[in-house]
Amino acid sequence: MLDGLREGNPIRSLLTQRGDGSPFYGWIIVAVGMTVIFSSGPGQSYLFSVFLDPIIEDTGLSRTTISGLYALGTFLSAGMVFVISGLADRRGPRWTLTLVAFLFGIACFTMSAASGAVLIAIALASLRGLGQGALPINSTLLIASWFVSKRGRAMAIYGLGGALSTATLPPVSRFLIENVGWQTSYAIFGLFIWLALIPLTLIAVRNEPEDMGLYPDGADEPPAGEIRADGTRETGPSRSEVVRSKMFWLLVLPLAMPSLVNTALIFHQADLFANRGLSADVAAGVFVPYAVASASSNVVSGLLVDRFGPRLVFVTAATVLVMPPLLVQVISSPATAVGYAMLMAAGSGASMMVSRTIWAHFYGRHGLGGVQGSAMVVTIFSSALGPFFLSSLRDAFNGYAVPLVLMSGMMAAASIVMFLHRPDRESRAVAVEPSATTTSA
User: Fold this and answer.
1) Which whole number is the average pLDDT over 218-243?
2) According to the 3-state scheme, what is the secondary structure of 288-318?
3) CATH number at residue 365
4) Which residues of 383-413 are buried (b: 16+ CB within 10 A; e: fewer)?
């Protein structure tokens, strides 16, 4: 009877994947990844949006100037991501995660000491490059190396760390800002990152299952398609081969649109809400239901990616994201603000899941740093443009209406492009598919 209960336990069946019945070490890697993505908050837009108005008030810089500095810092961070993703391929994510965690703490301390435009731009470049770029890319590379057939659900569990960060860090930041100021708050975050990430990475992280004599998913043999006829392992395409291919650009440009739109909406959320008569506390508070919806979307879309592949999941997510730029113009109460935030979170969570899985889906798990790093650079440029795009057009058109309608149209275009493009029919890349039931999505 007990054996039957164990066999029917979904948690046990999820975690116990090795042939001898023991838990697969890859789930420890997922737990580390959750901690990494949680700790990336100080470099993410959802947290900076809470700091934006206090920084404007304290420094005297305008909203458009701060948006421009944010864009400049994010542009500069792309070079950092490009270098670090290459290091991940050469040295492994364990080494690069340790380095990035150390530098990310320094970036928080730099932001805590920033006062003028130059120092703020430098600090933002470091925070964005390390928090929005280098930490997430290294953790997703790790998980992509440890999982193939269950990559979607592993990424879904990993994404819960980001949802928890979105739910908890903005209210915590609001509390800290009110009690110790925005600069000391960043110093506290820097200390937390050092204490949380560096020891954990050194102790628990292993670059790939083969380092421990294992195979992805705890299987008894390597995934199909990874071993050549001569017994050597597939290495995947080079970075230059990737960026010269039509397939890469028809994937990455639509995938970058949610980053542009979501970053812009979140960055200016306090002002957008204020225009509708809602307070800064409401703007910060909706991140809690946002996180719940994002986590739910993340889990469901992870399972759907395993079943249908990432392309169709993205089409659905992009279609959902057509609505938030329109809805934010008509919200009128905390309840409608919560509904707006949850809809945006549902689309954002699904699109983020696709971004984490699609490159390994089409290019395989070896040499993935060059592929995913190149995609991350495009995404970073897109997220850098978002806040400045929205703020500049707001000034030009004396309001948010025109730029928000344009953003809605951009999401519709991204959905159409991904729906019409079928990259798996054109690719010669290694395609280690998630499961035998995956369609040609």
Assistant:
1) 66
2) HHHHHHHHHHHHHHHHHHHHHCHHHHHHHHH
3) 1.20.1250.20
4) bbbbbbbbbbbbeeeeebeebbeebbebbee
The verdict on residue 439 lying in a domain is: no
The verdict on residue 242 lying in a domain is yes
Query: Per residue in 194-210, is it b (16+ CB within 10 Å) or e — as a string?
Result: bebbbebbeeebbbbbe
Please report whether residue 231 resides in a domain: no
Other CB atoms within 10 Å distance of the CB of residue 377: 22
- Dihedral sign of CA atoms 239, 45, 201, 216 in order: negative
Summary mean pLDDT of the chain: 83
Distance CA 50, CA 172 (A): 10
For the stretch 280-304, pLDDT in tens is: 888 878 888 988 898 889 889 988 9
Q: Which two tokens stand for residue 302?
A: 């992870």
Q: Is residue 226 part of a domain?
A: no
What does the longest C-alpha to C-alpha distance in the chain come to? 70
Asked if 371 contacts 251 with a C-beta cutoff of 8 angstroms, the reply is no
Lowest mean pLDDT across 29-38, 64-73, 251-260, 262-271: 64-73
147-151, 334-338, 370-374, 430-434: which has the minimum mean pLDDT? 430-434
Distance separating alpha carbons of residues 298 and 285, to the nearest angstrom: 20
The residue with tokens 């069946």 is 13
Reported confidence tier of residue 6, pLDDT bands at 50, 70, 90: very low
Count of the separate structural domains present in the chain: 1
| Confidence (pLDDT) at 424 | 53
DSSP 177-214: HHHH-HHHHHHHHHHHHHHHHHHHHHHH--SSGGGGT-
Residue of 165, 50, 187, 178 lying closest to 114 (CA atoms): 187
Place of tokens 């609505």: 323
Q: What is the C-alpha separation between 40 and 42, in angstroms, rounded?
A: 6
Would you put residue 309 in left (φ > 0), alpha (ψ -120 to 50) or beta? Answer: left
Which pTM does this prediction carry? 0.70
In sequence order, the β-bridge partners of residue 23 are: 16
Rounded-to-integer distance, Cα 291 and Cα 346, Å: 9
- Phi/psi of residue 277, each to 5°? 80, 20
- CA 117-266-369 angle, to 5 degrees, is 80
**In terms of pLDDT, which residue wins out, 338 or 84?**
338
| Residue 389: domain span | 23-210+236-425
The whole-angstrom separation of Cα 80 and Cα 71 is 15
